[in-house]
Amino acid sequence: MSEAQPEYKTTIKEGFFVADCVEFMRDMDENVVDLTVTSPPYDNLRHYDGYSFDFENIAHQLYRVTKTGGIVVWVVGDKINGGRTLTSFRQGIFFQEIGFQMHDVMIYQKKNTPFMRSNAYTNCYEFMFVLSKGKPNTFNPLKTETARHGPEMLVYNKGPDGVNKKVRKELKKEKTRTNIWQYAVGLGGTTNDRVAFKHPAVFPEKLAEEHILSWTNPGDLVFDPMCGSGTTGKMALIHNRHFIGVDISKEYIAICKERIGLLNTQLL
Predict the structure, then answer these.
(1) Which helix (H) or strand (E) element contains residue 231?
(2) What is the Cα gyration radius of the chain?
(3) Percentages helix, strand, coil for the chain, rounded to the nearest 5?
(4) What confidence tier does 127 reach under pLDDT thresholds 50, 70, 90?
């Protein structure tokens, strides 16, 4: 093995695995994962063949396997039943209690949500908790074009007297994106990959892709302990990251492997 290869290559095989994710993570070395992107089966909004969701043990094991400076992106929402459960908030606080920092609270906004509510505004978002184990090792900010650029007289150091003081500065052509990310959902939005919809809850490929590009570099290890239809794995492999995906359902792992097969990508 060359010195350039990461340590986890000696003990961890990449690919998709049928397993209980808590047991699987217990067999992993500590401090090996650069980025986890996952969405748990929160608030029983979907039925997963009767499998249970052991949140607290999953959280503890995620902390153990994440590198110092690594990131966990936890995509989660709340059941609405007369009001919100706030399960997501309780999970976020628990992550803090076991050692993660809440590096950011981002919003995944669904552009075309069809679900109307009779006594409140239509819900169109989920949270993306960006949890860090210490200071993040990597941040490659995604950019967006500014409405205007070039030299302008800009306000600075406005005091309590309300007088505008201006100085000539250069407006840049690009700026870092906001932490609200919008995606269309459904076929053509979430993915063009029809096989993915054999799973009951698929998040957008662009969501996984943009977190992978933001928080990792080529060769880093990306993990999804509840990998469902394999979206995180697909985007990790497209962008030359190593990947491990785990799901307790044989049927879901079969979907993952079918999707990866469409990429003509051979897992190590």
Answers:
(1) helix 231-238
(2) 21
(3) 25, 30, 45
(4) very high
State yes or no: pLDDT of 13 exceeds 80.
no
Q: Read off the DSSP letter of residue 80.
A: B
Decide if 231 contacts 209 (C-beta within 8 A): no
Picking from 53, 63, 39, the residue whose alpha carbon sits closest to that of residue 224 is 39
* Residue count (the chain): 268
66 touches 240 (CB < 8 A): no
Q: Which residues have CB under 8 Å from 118's CB, separation 6+? A: none
pLDDT-based confidence at 12, cuts 50/70/90?
Answer: low
Q: Return the minimum-mean-pLDDT range out of 117-121, 136-140, 200-204.
A: 200-204
* Tokens found for residue 132: 């860090």
Strands 101-110 and 180-183 turn out to be: parallel
Question: Can you give the pLDDT at residue 44?
Answer: 56
Q: Name the residue type at position 167.
A: V
> Sheet holding 33-38: strands in order across?
15-18, 242-247, 221-224, 33-38, 66-76, 125-132, 101-110, 180-183
Residue type, 141: P
The three-state DSSP-derived secondary structure of 174-226 is: EEECCCEEEECCCECCCECCHHHHHCCCCCCHHHHHHHHHHHCCCCCEEEECC
What is residue 149's DSSP assignment?
Answer: -
Contact status, residue 207 vs residue 183, Cβ threshold 8 Å: yes
Instruction: Report the distance separating Cα 173 and Cα 186, nearest Å.
Output: 33
